[in-house]
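Discrete fold record:
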Amino acid sequence: DWDEGPYFQSERGALYDAAAAKLIADGQAYYCDCTRDSLLLRTGDPNRGYDGYCRDRDLGVAPGRALRFRTPDAGATTVVDLIRGRPEFENELLEDFVVVRGDGRAIFLLANVVDDIEMRISLVIRGEEHLPNTPKAQLLWQALGGGDPPTWAHVPVLVNEKRQKLSKRRDKVALEQYRDEGYLAPAMRNYLMTLGWAPPGDVEIVPWTVIEETFRLEDVNSAPAYFDLKKLAAFNGEYIRALAVDEFVDASRPWIAGGAAPWPPERFDPVAFAAMAPLVQERVTTLAEVPRYVDFLFLDDAPIETASWDKAMKGDAAAILDEAAAAYETADWTAESLKEALDAVGQRHGLKLAKAQAPVRVAVTGRTVGPPLFESLALLGRERTLARLRAARERL
């Protein structure tokens, strides 16, 4: 949680203008009209930084002229970093960098330093890709009379499975997208805290209070952190299973009630879902998976998946469907009785229950994977179960 703000840099332009004026008055900045093409003509090196050409030209302010900070020609700037130690940067290797664009707008570096001085910031935490800018920020801080510079902590970048830095153009990085896919906020927060750091002991899934009590920036690893989607899903699954059943039902509601569900809203039965919820809760890793585990309850026909059908409907499938339908016409409609009846069918064909129930599961639920079969049949009811067994037999 934050204590104040938010603040908008677009509303703080007068502060940045005053800082630029001070730099000019103190001889710490100068105007420059150089273009990238003119620099290339002078140096012949497209990779070379600015060569200081306008340092002594004494140009005044004019449209299109940028304001550059005059970096020291000697010495070194040391950055105190809680994660990376004390990296040192030779000042002579720092080019005279732009602080105000040709259109008069301050660049982010000047704006950030002015904001941090004005707000008395003592600790800056940011990504390691900003480390090369830090000596420039410290030089600006000193030139503006900010006093002691802040302590820094440059946290590791996040990389994907190919060890490429996460990119919004290539990777899934928006928190809203994970929320829409059914990731719980506490699970995401816990997982993000393990990227470059881990709580004491061998357990990473811990209450937030433990993270608050034990986290230290000094313990963060400086190496790039792998954003592992499979591990995140495992975290989320653990958090889902830790919910009370009524909490799980409430959390699932955006995916199972209303127009987002794959069945007509009027077909949804909250009582049936509440009965199935504990069985589904043990099997899903995201809330977006919930509809696939229960859609067979709220659709007129089983949502047959071709791959599941092809896998289950072979060998003795036809005979098993026939015999299961016959047995279920008179069986007590309880999960245990339905299991015993199908087990007997399987034994007559020399099949273990796991094999015997495969065609029945696909016929009734449409998939080879789902909640426990016999509890599902008990909820679906005798009439709908028999209708689906016969429909599958006819299709077969």
Observations:
- The longest helix spans residues 335-348.
- The chain has a mean pLDDT of 95.
